Here is the input.
Amino acid sequence: MTGVRTLVLAGGDPLHHNYDYPILSLPNGYAILTNHIVMMLVAALLMLWVMPRAARAIATGKTGTSHDYVTKGTLSHLIEVICVFFREEVARPALGRNTDRFMPFIWTVFFFILFNNLLGMVPLLDATSLVLDGVINKPHAAAPHVEGSGAAAGFAGSHGAEGHEASSLAAGDSHDSHVMKLGPFTLFQDLTKEGTASHFHGVGGTATGNIAVTFALALIAIMIIIGSGLQSLGLRGFVDHLTLGTKFPLSVLMVVLEIIGLIAKPFALMVRLFANMTAGHVMLASILGFCSMAWNGVGPLGGVIISVPAIIFATLIGLLELLVAFIQAFVFTFLTAMFISLFQHHDHEHEHEDDHSHNEAPVQGELAGAH
Here is the structure.
């Protein structure tokens, strides 16, 4: 019954899916393995399993027939379309001849974020908590109730505050006595308790709804942006890019503004992904929270009247969140590609100028012959 109540009240805390619950903690309370780390590892393993299979299905054969160029499988078709779209429609117009150099990174960023976004929509946290709640979380013993009489009652009356403190301390000790250990590590440490205690909240959640995760992704992106810019332009060219060719003292102001822009770029990537993935879960949890509030407040009949439209609306929001999972992965990857292109040689502009000049020559010759 406790597990059913846990599932029904899952929407009670709108941020339930975004909390990063510890799994393995050191004695000092520092967590070395958390739910979101597990979800990122699962996403990475899924990529290592899905992407090579898709690559083999997309690869051309050796039979010498037209079947060599036919991709096998619906998922492989989807992955091929996404990869070609990013290469030809997103990266190539911005990066030009440097496109193939950055495509492995761009594809990896997109699919890693997408896999984490989609895994966050699977209710693993609630499902594992429902199944294992009664197995891992042992019921805590209540503090013993002592009835005093005579002198003992008088002692309790004269030392009421101390007795209450001792009773609370005993209850706290019994509550914190449930500690699970794995060697020197504490399992599922409950961070809401001052002492060492364990409480299993489930395994799952949305890693991209954790601002520390999106910060790490944005930090990797900005390191690639700056590193590739230094490699492409050189140190002098990179500094000239920051000054935009202006002279002193205006160049100092331009450098300050460009450095602020470099800081703002990963900040925008970090906050946009975090906020959008968090907002979807908050909205879903808030809507589903109406169901439990209705059942507890107005009874079964009112609960049904309120719960049915709430569940329908939550389903529609879930479909919208599925779209948002793809959109946010695309936006993060698209902006990363654009930021990389800002610090690259724009040789494609000269190529377009050369093509334009070559196309003008025959036209001028024809006009000269006509005259």
